[in-house]
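dude i think i finally got it to work??
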Amino acid sequence: MQNSNYEVSILIPTYNRSHLIRNAIESSLMQTQKCEIIVCDHGSNDETKEICESYGEDIKYIRREEDYGIHFCELESILASKGKYIHFCFDDDWMHPEFISQCLSLMSNSVGVVYSDYKTVKLDSSKGEYLKWEKIKKYKYETLPSWRFIPFVISRVISPSRALVRREDALRCMYMSTNLMSDSYYNGVGPDWLITAYPIFHYPKSVYIENKLVSFGVHEKSITCDVINKNEVNSLNAFRSAYRGAKLYLLVSIFIKKIKLEKIATFIELSIRFIKKFLLKSNFKLKLKKHL
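look at this
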């Protein structure tokens, strides 16, 4: 039975991946650090529902009959979670059994994100033993000032499926509308970058684990592989522009905070109100004098 007091929530958004979803769920259940496990399914019409329900109370299964897209599927899973920290295990990814425990051990009040190296595994029709991991004798990691990670995160994406972040930070990123900075949208691309980039800009430290603790399944229908394999100019441009919009959104918001623009705007607004009241009062006095 799922415990509501788990410190970490593992979130698995899914859509029509019945042939892969077991790996993601089993990987989550195998964690040495016990976690709340939430599978959020928006509109699958394959066997995903039956597979998820077969786990009973070992997981929390949320289903919507209509597919609202990956962004809202991810958002709903976060809203349903109870943990202080969250990890996205996408339905074509899986983790080393000690991934969560290692990440959690390196978290602190000054650390915004802990993320590990990863490996890619080409998925095929054969039933590979994807969940077999070698025992790691020594963990190698670096705790560095977050500014050291900024050039890296600006030039590429640290996938949420290789990271542990605070739930409250992830929620901020999911509610940010990156389309305000760009006309492009591509399958929820953008907020996934924000989830791991935002903490790097807002906490003094970040941690990188050098061990490969996460596997990414490579297959034709993954969002990244799909856009690359299509090699369509419009799709590629939309994909890249969606990420550009997210980066602009974050950088502009940081600049606005740094120059205290909100306080300046508040001061201007209050000044206008004061002037307006003063003019109204002066005008009232003037009219009063005329009638006396």
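The two ends are 81 Å apart (CA to CA).
im so relieved honestly
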